[in-house]
């Protein structure tokens, strides 16, 4: 094959890769998930073309061109994105919501991994509370508290609520981070985190329903639970993305697939941190308060609608 024929055949792919690299100059976050996948595919092809050009046309300028193109592709995939206040605003107003929409199936999978065990634990515990200890460590104490009608969350007293808020936020962030980081175990530990937390909620809810304590429990959980659980599902979805990249890297090398998946997953985790802070404040100050259940349900509804608008409401802006 002559160099001219080689160039004519491959030029459209190189030009497309060049266009994607130019668009990603501000970071891969400017590309959609499909475009990032296309970028990786074209980068792999260009790397193969470079090897062929070096072998067959070592003195032709196409070798120099491809060397530059492949170097740009490598830098785009493995670099760290620039920061700045403008990037901070763009991240929370556009990048985080868009990343969620592009990867929502992973969050849905995380939700199912949580919800199905929770439902099973709820049914088993409701029918026979002695199942609780087999499903949740320390269930005997919690079920005894519920059976006695003890609202243990009232230990968050007025004087200690600021400290409790910090502790709650730290705990929630820890759960979300474990669900995310567990992805490097091919998603196995992420699955364990989601299933175990689902079982815990199911046991508590089942016992509360069995001993006529449900109104008390949901009066505490409802206000902060919408945001808190949503964030856990998003973080779990981020972890599942890492696991899937290791299991099925596609056209990428496993390392490149993990790097790209980690970038997307980290965007989700960073976006979740302020949401968990909000949930922690609600859990410390509103959830254990003597406010009527109706008020707490309004808070739950408002937070759910607000979160939905935030994650889904920028689509029109992106299309304009």
From TrEMBL:
Coiled coil: none
InterPro entries given in the database record: SpoIIM-like (IPR002798)
Annotated TM spans: 104-126, 186-208, 220-247, 268-287, 293-314
Key words of the record: Membrane, Transmembrane, Transmembrane helix
PANTHER family noted in UniProt: SLR1478 PROTEIN (PTHR35337:SF1)
Stated name of the protein: Integral membrane protein
Lineage of source species: Bacteria, Bacillati, Chloroflexota, Chloroflexia, Chloroflexales
């Amino acid at each position: 094959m002559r160099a001219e024929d080689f160039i004519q055949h491959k030029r459209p792919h190189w030009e497309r890769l060049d266009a994607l690299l130019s668009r990603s100059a501000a970071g891969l976050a400017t590309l959609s998930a499909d475009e990032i996948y296309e970028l990786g595919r074209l980068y792999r092809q260009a790397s193969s073309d470079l090897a062929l050009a070096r072998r067959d046309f070592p003195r032709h300028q196409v070798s120099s061109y491809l060397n530059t193109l492949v170097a740009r592709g490598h830098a785009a995939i493995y670099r760290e994105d620039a920061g700045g206040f403008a990037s901070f605003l763009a991240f929370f107003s556009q990048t985080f919501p868009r990343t969620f929409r592009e990867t929502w199936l992973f969050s849905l999978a995380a939700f199912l991994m949580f919800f199905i065990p929770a439902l099973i634990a709820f049914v088993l515990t409701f029918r026979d509370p002695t199942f609780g200890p087999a499903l949740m460590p320390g269930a005997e104490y919690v079920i005894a508290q519920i059976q006695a009608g003890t609202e243990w969350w009232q230990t968050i007293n007025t004087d200690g609520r600021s400290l409790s808020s910090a502790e709650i936020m730290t705990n929630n962030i820890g759960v979300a981070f474990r669900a995310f980081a567990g992805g490097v175990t091919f998603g196995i530990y992420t699955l364990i985190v989601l299933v175990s937390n689902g079982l815990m909620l199911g046991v508590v809810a089942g016992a509360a329903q069995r001993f006529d304590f449900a109104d008390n429990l949901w009066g505490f959980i409802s206000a902060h639970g919408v945001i808190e659980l949503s964030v856990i599902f998003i973080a779990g979805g981020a972890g599942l993305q890492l696991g899937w990249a290791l299991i099925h890297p596609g056209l990428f090398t496993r390392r490149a697939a993990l790097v790209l998946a980690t970038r997307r997953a980290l965007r989700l985790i960073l976006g979740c941190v302020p949401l968990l802070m909000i949930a922690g404040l609600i859990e410390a100050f509103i959830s254990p308060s003597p406010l009527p259940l109706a008020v707490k349900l309004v808070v739950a509804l408002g937070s759910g609608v607000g979160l939905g608008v935030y994650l889904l409401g920028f689509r029109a802006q992106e299309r304009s």
